[in-house]
Amino acid sequence: MRNWLPHPILTPSLAIVWLLLNNSLEPGQILLGLLLGWAIPRFTLAFWPERVRIHSTAQLLRFAAVFLYDVLVANLAVARLILAGPRALRPAFVVVPLDLSNDLALSLLANTICLTPGTVSARLSADRRSLLVHALDCGDPAELVATVKTRFEAPLKAIFEGDAAC
Amino acid sequence: MLSFALAVAFALVGAAAALSFLRLLKGPDAADRILALDTLYINAIALLVLLGIRLASPLYFEAALLIALMGFVGTVALCKFLLRGDIIE
Amino acid sequence: MSAATELLLSVLVLAGAAFTFIGSLGLWRLRDFYTRLHGPTKATTLGVGCLLIASSVFFSIAGDGWSLHEILVSLFLFITAPVSAHLLAKAALHRRLPSIAPPPEEMAEEERQ
Which residues span the domain enclosing C97? Predict the structure, then answer.
């Protein structure tokens, strides 16, 4: 099982991407998509040493909803800031300490930070314990760190590392 | 109504592309120019999607997808170049 | 096409174009590289997202059957835009571009090592 289907989540995802790319739901395309979804992870095994585990699907769905809502809010905020002009900005570099160790969770956190609360992640420290973040308009760095940690990091930790602390 | 909205949208996205192009010319640093190029890719995608709706032709979608793919690879390669002074080690 | 869908499409197209424009405006108008980075990564991504939803709705109604492949481009942009932004920010820190915000201390130390 482990050798034949090394990534049970990647396979259906690739099949869905294939179907979207072809914009069709014909049985032949579904079969081809599943075949590709099986073959690609199988033959690129060396690039995916870790198996992705999702501990809580409900948390994942909730995180996706929070994420989409935050993208919308953050975009409106950034648009408002840009229109208000450069003088109204209070840019700052903030260091966010991290509790995550899972690679995928870390990259998802960095991506989420880039898309949501008026921030761009700039650099992961060499020991992977903190992330440098640039905020477009930041009045209170401590509050920003708290938001990132409770709103994004805690759910990601629960989803990928199975910690029910949140 | 839709054709009017599309005309306005074309003007806005065209202006956006012009601003990105000005930033591409002005710089001042290489990183600014890469960022401007990346924005130009996204503006081009927006223009192609609008054109697809305007001409009611799904063909333009493929071009938009290709620009998205190639633009990302180009940006990453240029950033790597800035970071390491070399693309392939 | 009914009046309601036409209105929905017009609103989506206009919102998308407006966000795209604001993103580029930020790129042109803001003063240092790090703040400029915010416009294109956020506003532009949502702008193109709106346009792609409009395109999806349009072709689902005008063409035959659902047209969902636009989701693929939005998904791809949502994944790649932060990665490019992160790499650009990293490159800018590496090149020590001037910043309005005070650059962090420990980063400078790490750079020296």
Answer: 3-112
Q: What total of structural domains would you count in chain B?
A: 1
- Output the six-digit token pair for A98: 């991290």
pLDDT at position A163: 57
Domain count, chain A: 2
ipTM score here?
0.84
At B15-66, the pLDDT tens digits run 999 988 998 888 788 888 888 888 898 899 899 989 988 888 888 888 888 8
Is C63 in CB contact (< 8 Å) with chain A? Answer: no
Q: Is residue A42 located within the same domain as residue A95?
A: no
Instruction: Name chain C contacts of B45, Cβ cutoff 8 Å.
Output: 48, 73, 77
User: How far apart (Å, rounded) are the C-alpha atoms in residues C69 and C66?
Assistant: 9
What is the pLDDT at residue C101? 67
Helix H segments across chain C? 3-29, 33-36, 38, 45-62, 70-94, 105-112
Nearest Cα neighbor of A132 from C98, B74, C92 is: C92
Distance from the Cα of C101 to chain B's closest Cα (Å) equals 17
**In the prediction, which pLDDT does C86 show?**
85
Q: What is the pLDDT of residues C4-57, one digit of tens each?
A: 888 888 998 999 999 899 888 888 888 788 888 887 887 778 888 888 888 888
Q: Which domain holds residue A146?
A: 57-161
The answer as to whether B89 is a domain residue is no
Which stretches of chain A sit within 8 Å of chain C by CB?
A: 17, 20-23, 71-72, 74-75, 78-79, 81-83, 85-86, 89, 91-93, 95, 110-115, 118, 120-123, 125-126, 132, 134, 136
Is there a domain that residue B40 lies in?
yes
CA distance to partner chain A, nearest, from residue C4 (Å)? 23
Are A96 and A30 within one domain? no
pLDDT at A166: 42
Residue A95 β-bridge partners: A132
Residue B13 lies in a domain: yes
Segments of chain A with pLDDT less than 50: 1, 164-166
Residue B44 is part of a domain; what is its CATH number?
A: 1.10.287
SS3 B78: helix
Q: Which of residues 24-63 of C touch B (CB under 8 A)?
A: 24-25, 27-28, 33, 36-37, 39-40, 44-45, 47-48, 51-52, 54-55, 58-59, 62-63
- Please indicate, yes or no, if residue B38 is contained in any of the structural domains: yes
